[in-house]
Amino acid sequence: MRQRYRRRHSTVRSRPRQAFTAALTTAALLLAGCSSANIPDSRTEIVMWNHAAGNPEELATISEVIDAFNASQDQYFVRQEAFPQLVYGDAITAAALTGDLPCIVDIDGPIVPNWAWAELLRPLEISQETLDQMLPSTLGEYQDETYSVGYYDVALGIHARQSVLERYGIRIPSIEEPWSGEEFDAALETIAAGGEFRYPLDLGTGIADGEWWSYAYSPFLQSFGGDQIDRDTYLTAEGALNGPEAVAFGEWFQSLFTRGLVSREGNPARPEFFDGSVALSWQGSWEALKAYEEWGDDMLQLPPPDFGAGPVIGGASWQWGVSTSCEDPAGAFEYLEFTLQPQYLARFSEELGVIPATQAATELTPQFSEDGQLRPAVDLSREFAMVRPQTPAYQVISSVFEKTLKDIMHGADVEAVLNRAVRDIDTNIRSNDGYGF
């Protein structure tokens, strides 16, 4: 995550190839210095693309793991091409349209079902024993097949300061006893009445578009008892997104702004919790270390509230898959299985501040281990993570959901816009013959 979310398109196959030419050219120019060389003649080359060119810690860790794999055997040689994230999405989609995907691709978890439906990814040929050790949210699935695997996940929670809650007489919630929706609302109203903070709560509404709106706010909908789609069939959003529970969520969400508890705007960089202008922040675990540096032992990572159907946070981050274009899938799968060893998963967690994908890796990562400072993120992920709907329609669902919530935030009739959202999602599903469901 780390602000990694950006708008995706409704299906991989829907956008004209010409639209990607400039982005692909730019990406190619930026690859200098980001790929391995000197491939031994006797080895089979396995090409990998990733979006880590703008993240030196992640790029260095990927390179370290590649070097370890290349040194561990003499049959395959993995070569990476690292793109800046701003052009990666367009570049990889252009390659998909032309049938030129590399063997190994780096993909954001929610779009995996779309790629699987479009027959761009192969089902993983990795031992079931290995997959069984992974956090469920790190596996990308479609139609009961696993198509991708991630090295880590992240967790949303409420960042707060103990001294503030104690000053206002607000109970500190726990995973075992989170705030109820009523308690959460009362806490916000109490803090607002104190006049100490510009707003009681920062929700990140200044993040203008992209996956954040679905990732961050659909868990509230699900905690109310609604959802973005009927997960029993994946053929309609009727009832899930416009039923009584969804309407209650929408009315509550709208009230946060009409009551002045949350800003309709805000800085996309989200400095408010760090500069003390908000009391609480709905924030990702990737910012927790920075918050501890700012507030020390006063910093708390709190669970989400329970609005009636249980606390929920979003699950799934970036993952790895093997393309159907790959001419040597055995080598690609051998590499992926190699990278899932605990010591390598732990390295990603140490460098990126993300939740290790397995228990064995967690035990090797001090900050996430039983007494580690970031341990609450592990527990939040294990207890409350729900993956976003695993359907090829998800890109449309996410886009429609974002527009709907923005309209609700700005005062639209809740029932009307939820009904419109259902119509838009269902129309897309019908036009694609149910996406295989």
Molecular structure report:
- By secondary structure, this protein is an alpha/beta fold.
- It is globular and about 70 Å long.
- The protein is 42% helix and 15% strand.
- The strands form five sheets. A four-stranded mixed sheet has the order 2-1-3-12, sandwiched between helices.
- It has two domains: 195 residues, Periplasmic binding protein-like II (D-Maltodextrin-Binding Protein, domain 2, 3-Layer(aba) Sandwich); 203 residues, Periplasmic binding protein-like II (D-Maltodextrin-Binding Protein, domain 2, 3-Layer(aba) Sandwich), CATH 3.40.190.
- It has 17 helices and 14 strands.
- Helix 2 links the parallel strand 1 and strand 2.
- Helix 1 crosses helix 3, helix 2 runs antiparallel to helix 13 and helix 16 packs antiparallel against helix 17.
Key attributes of the depicted protein:
single chain, alpha/beta, D-Maltodextrin-Binding Protein, domain 2, 2 domains, 4-stranded mixed sheet, 15% strand, globular, disordered N terminus
